[in-house]
């Protein structure tokens, strides 16, 4: 079970969704799949074709930059953070 | 019940809804909606009354937003809006258009998607992507985008699309196969001045004649076609420039359309001489009449993009356009006189005029 922290701009797209979610999975891909079961549609906001994590989205597992195949140990903290950009 | 107009204004930083009074004189502005996402196009789907707003976030990708209460609450979806894991990534949705039996979305890189459930789920119209010319499609300055979708008003098998800088296509079998519709359209930037494809269509619209009369504003002129795009005839004569982006067709008179010429691509792409003006034809493009009463007469170095002009269906018709610097103008007399509707909006990418009860 991972402790997933989601950004405001993401949860705003899913009325009622919490900023922190407990999600199952041994990898980032599995955690995102479980997130999608809890918040339908959230996978499409995080992942692009490939599948790959969208270019301007960063996922960190226990503080380290992660990919979809990065292992997620039990109790890990997962942060989803949009890249700093804009105008 | 009194009919009133709601203007849906897509901008670089969200959708705005402007609720008009019964006289179309005063407007209440709501927004930014859609969480401030860049919105390329928005409509009211006549089948459901839902507002559909198409766009894409730099962070979260493409989606079509839906509101069943004229913008008070929203959901969004991109379910099925993909070329598959092995295909190119979709950057944004440029156009959303309602047909008689479906809603269509045009995306970048160019492709067409269809929804039979009111923009909840989408299916790729593979026939267009499988067109034999696809490997040779080249983007225009704004990207390789499918920006114009023109469903036949009654024949659900027929749809036209416009792609920059590829040209126009028509399907007559519900999207399974597509034919080029560019004969007679110039491509001055191409060594071959009349290629089969590669024309830079900027906006494709259908007249209210029942399904064969089309108009287009192109990078290289303005055109009409009396036979569903099989042959185009240039109608640029009488306009100050051949360049521009938007075009709007009268909801009842097939010979009346509006366009907004801009200075040539290498000369700024703004209102010529900084003097704002809209051009209207009432004879199918044989002659054009300028109208600028109420518009800025000097230092109006503004541009109007391809989706940023719209008409309502009231009588007289209301005409509206928004600039890429955030001014929104309206006319209650079919474009004869103008007044400003809103100022200081973000860069306006689209305007739609929906009549609501």
Helix content of chain B: under 10%
User: What kind of sheet is the major sheet of chain B?
Assistant: 4 strands, antiparallel
- Total of helices of chain A: 3
What is the residue-mean pLDDT of chain B, rounded to a whole number?
A: 96
Q: CATH class of the domain at 4-244 and 350-356 in chain B, anyone?
A: Mainly Beta
What is the end-to-end distance of chain A?
Answer: 37 Å
Number of strands of chain A: 7
Rounded to the nearest angstrom, the distance between the terminal CA atoms of chain B is: 6 Å
Q: Specify the structural class of chain A.
A: alpha+beta
Largest interface: A-B, 20 and 21 residues
CATH architectural name of chain A = Roll
* Largest sheet strand order of chain B: 3-2-1-28
Strands of chain B, total number: 28
Q: What's the structural domain tally of chain A?
A: 1
Radius of gyration of chain A: 12 Å
* Strand percent estimate of chain A: 25-35%
- Secondary-structure-derived class of chain B: mainly beta
Mean pLDDT of chain A: 96
Number of helices of chain B: 1
The residue ranges of chain A in which pLDDT falls below 50 over 5 or more consecutive positions are: none
Strand order of the largest sheet of chain A: 2-1-7-5-6
Structure report:
The complex is a heterodimer of chains A (87) and B (357). With 87 residues, chain A is α+β, with helices and mostly antiparallel strands. Chain A has one domain: Beta-grasp domain (Ubiquitin-like (UB roll), Roll), CATH 3.10.20.30. Helices cover 23% and strands 29% of the residues of chain A. Chain A has a five-stranded mixed sheet, covered by helices on one side. Chain B is built from one helix and 28 strands. Chain B is an all-beta fold. In chain B, the strands form seven sheets. A four-stranded antiparallel sheet of chain B has the order 3-2-1-28, with no helix packed on it. A four-stranded antiparallel sheet of chain B has the order 4-5-6-7, with no helix packed on it. Chain B has a domain of 248 residues: YVTN repeat-like/Quinoprotein amine dehydrogenase (Methylamine Dehydrogenase, Chain H), CATH 2.130.10. Helices cover 1% and strands 41% of the residues of chain B. The mean pLDDT of chain B is 96. The interface between A and B is medium-sized, with 20 and 21 residues.
